[in-house]
Amino acid sequence: MAVSSDGKYLASGDQNKLIFIWNAETCQNLHKFQGHRGAVSALSFQKGTYQLFSASHDRSIKVWNVAENSYIETLFGHQDCVTGLDSLSRERCVTAGGRDGTVRVWKIAEESQLVFSGQEGSIDCIRLINEEHMVSGADDGSIAVWNVSKKKPLARVKCAHGKHGVPGLEEPHWISAVSAVLNSNVVASGSHDGSVRLWQCGEGFRGLHPLFTIPLVGFVNCLQFSTTAEFLVAGVGQEHRLGRWWRLKEARNGLYIIPFKRKQPHSEGS
């Protein structure tokens, strides 16, 4: 699901390969986009515009103009399901390519793409921190921070949410969601261990340092900071968003809203 930066339009995608455009205020369905040949896995509006990017299990990214109800173009390159997508103000988007093991930056005007690698397994989620840096998560349990001009991660934390399983056969908890406080050095990760962890990027984004952990119950399938970073929304389910590998009966499908308290500045003489 994605909302235009002015709050006018809302876009949602489904397993039936369709994208629905809604009036965000009245929830009236305005239009339906067709064209993907697989489930729609991610959506993002370019900020300040009505240009919509969509990612799909058909390995493609499509570009649409919501205000004109029109299709613009299709971007090809990923060799597996596209599992994550994000964009900001520039005319480009970033994507995670699942088991093709790549992160890509798509430059729309230049009709070009940059390919990044450095995480193992399936890269399942990605989010821009600012126009130059992004954070991704993979099912090898790692989170990574990237610069759009460097082909390898600036920082990577293995087993970011620990391991599970019997001794000697432990496996890392998969990273199923990431988010970032826009234009800051704070990122968040979610996993099927039922927790959200907050991290601080080091100087020059070369490093990730744990801040604290928020325990939840269920698969953390999506994360989103509010624009003012006053709270974090976590979408939690009984199953992983990409497949039915496990089911946690004690979990409930729903949303957690996690508020953050801002430190009050000390007054003079206190």
Automatic annotation (TrEMBL):
SMART domains: WD40. It holds the Pfam family WD40. Keywords: Nucleus, Repeat, WD repeat. InterPro entries: Rrp9-like (IPR039241), WD40/YVTN_repeat-like_dom_sf (IPR015943), WD40_PAC1 (IPR020472), WD40_repeat_CS (IPR019775), WD40_repeat_dom_sf (IPR036322), WD40_rpt (IPR001680). WD repeats lie at residues 1-32, 33-74, 75-116, 116-156, 175-200. SUPFAM superfamilies: WD40 repeat-like (SSF50978). Gene3D superfamilies: YVTN repeat-like/Quinoprotein amine dehydrogenase. PROSITE patterns: WD_REPEATS_1 (PS00678), WD_REPEATS_2 (PS50082), WD_REPEATS_REGION (PS50294). Transmembrane segments: none annotated. The keyword Cell membrane does not apply. It is found in: Nucleus. The keyword Repeat applies. This is U3 small nucleolar RNA-interacting protein 2. It comes from Staurois parvus.
